[in-house]
Design brief:
heterodimer, A: about 230 residues, mainly alpha, two-stranded antiparallel ribbon, B: about 120 residues, two-stranded antiparallel sheet, 2 strands, globular
Amino acid sequence: MRAFDESEADVSFCQQCGNENKPESQFCTQCGAKTAGSPAAAAPPPMANAPQPPPLGGAPGYPPPGYQQPPPNPFGAPPPPASGYAPSPAAAGQLATWGPRALGWLIDFAIVFVVLLVFTVILGHVSGVFAVLGDLAGIAIGIFLAVQVGNVGQSPGMRVVGVKCIGQATGQTIGGGMGIVRGLATILNTIICYVGWFFPLWDAQKQTLADKVMSTVVINVPKQKFSIMPPT
Amino acid sequence: MIGTIRYEVDLSRLRLAGSALLVGGLVFAHLPEAWGLPCPLRSLTGVPCPFCGTTTAVRDALGGHVGASAAAAPLGLLVVVAAFLAVIGRLPKRIAFHPAYLLVPLLAEWVFELHRFRVL
């Protein structure tokens, strides 16, 4: 074992298990905890004697979820051919692809649909008032979801599939008011034979037409459990 | 200023998309009944959108009726040709071009559709 005073340059010791790691490694090769050299660990200073949560998930030695860098290819094989649409694990922070975004939208649509179904189809038979109430409720939920997208970047469906809407220039959420404007802008996606919804399939920024107009992008973030309200 | 605007297109999924369009279109062309989502703009206002007629054109082209396809939407026929080329040809991963290269043909197509639906 090397002496501590000369170790700083070429090894670092894991704060969890004391294992020796190379200074450039972001995760301990023994227990998988983030090392002091990793950007994530550098940000919050670890509290002395505070109970440390165990590394999340996975076997020891494997990086925890949220690991951002793709593992090095052990075979040194060339990357897939240019035409390949090889599925790569959705890395956090990267632009979200069309599939998950569409799925998230379908989940949100299902929420509105269930309300419309109950009011308009079932209660609508009792009285026409319920049908009108149902329409109003549908609009209210639509606004409620749009405000959530603006405020926290995610609607319930977006939380489940793990995507988040942010301003293209700022990288921050756009705020509730702009969320409503973005919701209204999705009319543009629909009005041209629904083509606007499919823009992310070929757009380099993976934006819908509404995203283009609003200067928003949608990125991958860790998935969460389904919740109508944003978890605090 | 305007000359520096570029629209960047990711072509990495174009072969998959082209294949899907051709296979889907071929199935669609041989269905006993034509069906599809109605255009919201045309349903609400009677005015067609620039993409109106595209499904008809794709269905006609893959059903072997090239003339009918061009009459419904020339852009739809072009999309079928582009899909063929995407499946058999070699493609760059990304291209960037001035948006006018996209907007001018779309505008021409819209004028064509407005004329076809007797709005103009």
